[in-house]
Structure formats: structure tokens, C-alpha cells
Amino acid sequence: MTENRMALLEMAEKGGDVDFLRELVREVVHKLMDAEVTQHCGAERHERSEQRQDQRNGYRTRRWDTRVGSMELQVPRLRHANYLPSFLEPRRPTEQALVGVVQEAYIQGVSTRSVDELVKAAGMEGISSSQVSRLCASIDERVQAFLERPIEGHWPFLWLDATYVKVREHGRVVSKDCVIAVGVNTEGRREVLGLRVGPNETQGFWKQFLRELLGRGLTGVELVISDAHQGLKRAVGEVLHASWQRCRVHFMRNILSYVAKRHQSMVAAMVRTVFAQQDHAEARAQWRTVADQLRGQFPKVAEAMDAAEEDVLAHMAYPAAVWSKISSTNPLERVNKEIKRRSNVVGIFPNDEAVTRLVGAVLTEQTEEWATGRRYMSLDSLQQVTPADADDPEQALAQLEEQVA
Predict the structure, then answer these.
(1) Eight-state DSSP code of residue 329
(2) What is the pLDDT of residues 107-140, one digit of tens each?
(3) CA 303 to chain CA centroid, nearest Å
């Protein structure tokens, strides 16, 4: 023990904190390897013992890249067996660790230029922008497997939304839509069900996206929640044959744009009284009352309420326990914010594939987080929504065929 302490003191006197820490790690690792070899051999060095199973046979040099820098390790060799330290994975070179660092940095939103500095700070050699792109391409397989997986079970509630990113195309920088679908199944669990990158949110674009979801097994959709995009609304009716809920948060923003800033708080408070009602009938009556009260001073607000009553109150046809969750696209808001945070670091994506890679990785992580968290909806509330034949595979197949047709 005294000799080890003196060795550490000598290292501390040699210089900087980084060098000292690197030497300290190397010293500890060598002690660890010596202990493992002793256990494997069944005897100490030069010890005569009947329990001895092998003998030391010199050393081999191996480079080890760590957070405190690269170091040369003297790995013991054995005469009758192959020894690999427990902290080194077999047959996995340090390049795999480098790939992991770069991929994780890219997924976490670190710019390509910053990745080089990150790798150097980890004590490894720098990496070029082209290498980053090649290494990150291996994420594609994992993302595609996630986005193309079969959709199993019934999904009574489906949220649809789009966020925008900038992509370089034919020498120009254009805005592209990242269309995202999130669903809740009959077990109350949320999952990201789909992603598609496209030029704009046309009706044809939405129909193709929804048909892809059906082709992967989406079934049992009762209500779709989204903003008031007419192409999306028509696509939902034609492809899914489901009810449609207009996001009440987006609706509130729309009507407040017709109101002077000094009156917005008052108008918003009046409209919110509708959502405080106990049932659908009371909410409809209060909606008409508020619209009539605002008609004289704010005619455009009243007209918007007249046109949107059925769509904004559609969620009240379902159990009150889920109203707060299905009345808006809030389940997608956090996801969209995270996508924006990561994509803003990139700035302009080189192509659609790069968008799918990064956004798909974010959605994969989000779904895994939801899978290990609490249920988004209780089973009791969903029992009133789920049809009696939800577990009948033949009925589900018939519904799917009818929807696809």
C-alpha cells in the first residue's frame, strides 16, 4: 500500500491535472488486470501452488482511448489461454467507440464542426465532416426499422402535426414538412407511429401518409386531432373514416388574431368557459351564448365560432376523463420543440435522408421514453372508447381492408 501511495505522489508531482489523471487511470487499470490474471491463473506471480491453472507469458501492448486521453496498456499474456481485460469488449476496436461518440453527438444536436472538437476533447484523434456523415449513416438502419415496424393493436386516438425544417435541394434552400403521427392504443400507451418528409401539406400528401400507416397495420382509429388544415381534414375522412377534432389551442390563437391586444384576455376567458362545462350539451349551449355575446363587438370571432363549433367540441363525445388529452395537439408539442432544438443546430440539412435520420432518431428516443413511463390514459377511461370487437382479429382485418379500399 505504501509503494502504491508513493507512486501516486510521484505522478502528481510530474505536471498537469490531465496527465496526472491519465497516469492514475493507467496505474489503476494495470492493478486491475494483474488481479484478474492472478485469479485466472489461481496463483500469484512466481508462486508455487497446486491450484495454479495457467502461467503468465509476458505482455502485449494495446492502445485504449478514454475520456482522459489515449494510453498504452501493457496487457498480460497467458501461456495456455487468451486473456482480455473485463473492461474491454472482445473483438470491438476503438473505432466502434469513436462511432458511438460521433453518432450520439450528432443525435444530440451537436454541429458537424463541433463534433471534431468533441472527439479531440475525449483524447482521440480528430474526425472530418465527411467521416461524420459516413458514420452517422449507420443510424439509418435503426431509424428505418423503427419507422417501418408493424403497427399492432387498436389505436382509438391519433394526433397528426407537421413541423418545418430547411433542406438544400437543387442548389436552393427550401422548407420541408416533417409530418408526424402519434397514437394512443387501447392500453393507454403513446407511440410515434409514423414520419414522412415532404414538400408541403397537400391533401394528396396526407392521404399517402395515412395509407402507409394503414398498410403497416393501423386500425381502430376513432378520433384524429390536428390543426385546421383542410387537406388533412379531408384526407382523414376519406382514408380513416374517423371523427376529427380541431385543436382548441390553435383555434384560440386563430380567433385572438381578430381581437386587439387589450381585449384578448377578456375574449379568451369567455371562450374558456365553454371547456369548463360538464357535458357536451352544456358546452354547446355555452358556445352559442358566448358567440352571441361577442357578435356585436367582435363579429369575426363570432363567425369563426359559428363555423368551428362541431370540430372544436368533437372531443366531448368521449369520456370526460380524456377530454384534456384529446382536445389539442399538446402531446406533439414537446416532440416538435425537441425536433426544433436539434434541427436548429444543424441549420440547413443536406437532403431529405439527413432529415429523416435526425428526426427519426429523436422520435425513436421519445417512444422509448414513453414506453417506460406512466400510461397516458387510464384503462378505465379507454374501456368506454374501445369497441367490443377490438380484440377480434378477423373483424380488425375486415375493417383494415375496407379502409385501404
Answers:
(1) S
(2) 777 666 677 776 666 555 666 666 666 667 777 8
(3) 39
Question: Which three cell numbers mark 80?
Answer: 495456455
Residue pair 190/157 in contact by the 8 Å Cβ criterion: no
Taking the C-alpha atoms of 265, 270, 276 and 279 in order, what is their torsion angle to the nearest 10 degrees?
-150
DSSP string, 136-184: HTTHHHHHHHHHTS---S--SEEEEEEEEEEEEETTEEEEEEEEEEEEE
Tell me, rounded to whole angstroms, the distance of Cα 196 from its chain centroid.
Answer: 15
Going 3 to 8 to 11 to 15, the CA torsion angle's sign is negative
Backbone angles phi, psi at 47, to 5 degrees: -85, 135
Integer angstrom CA distances of residue 93 from 88, 96, 395: 9, 6, 52
- Which range is least confidently modeled, 7-16, 64-73, 285-294, 344-353? 7-16
Q: What is the mean pLDDT of residues 143-156?
A: 93
Q: What cell numbers appear for 162 in the block?
A: 407537421
**What would the pLDDT profile of 45-98 be if each residue is shown by its tens digit?**
888 888 888 888 888 888 776 656 678 888 888 888 878 787 665 544 455 555
**Strand 348-349 and strand 243-246: pairing?**
unpaired
Spatial separation of the C-alpha atoms in residues 314 and 317, rounded to whole Å: 6
- Find, among 211, 212, 200, 214, the residue nearest to 235 by Cα: 211
**Which pTM was predicted?**
0.69
Q: Which pLDDT score, from 0 to 100, does residue 9 have?
A: 46
CA atoms of 68 and 91, how far apart (whole Å)? 23
Do 129 and 111 touch, CB atoms closer than 8 A? Answer: no
Question: How far from 358 is each of 71, 136, 283, 355, 361, CA to CA, in Å?
Answer: 33, 9, 42, 5, 5
Cα–Cα distance for residue pair 386/118, rounded to 1 Å:
50
Task: Give the three-class secondary structure for 73.
Answer: strand
Contacts of 103 (CB under 8 A, 6+ apart): 135, 136, 138, 139
Write the CB contacts of 288 (distance below 8 Å, at least 6 apart in sequence): 309
For residues 102 and 108, what is the distance between their CA atoms, to the nearest angstrom? Answer: 10
Q: 174, 119, 213, 195: which is closest to 362 by C-alpha?
A: 195
| DSSP-derived secondary structure letter, 265 | H
Cα–Cα separations (whole angstroms), residue 390 to 154, 155, 243, 245, 395: 7, 10, 18, 22, 8
Place of cell 365560432: 305
Instruction: Say how many C-beta atoms besides its own lie within 10 A of residue 138's C-beta.
Output: 11
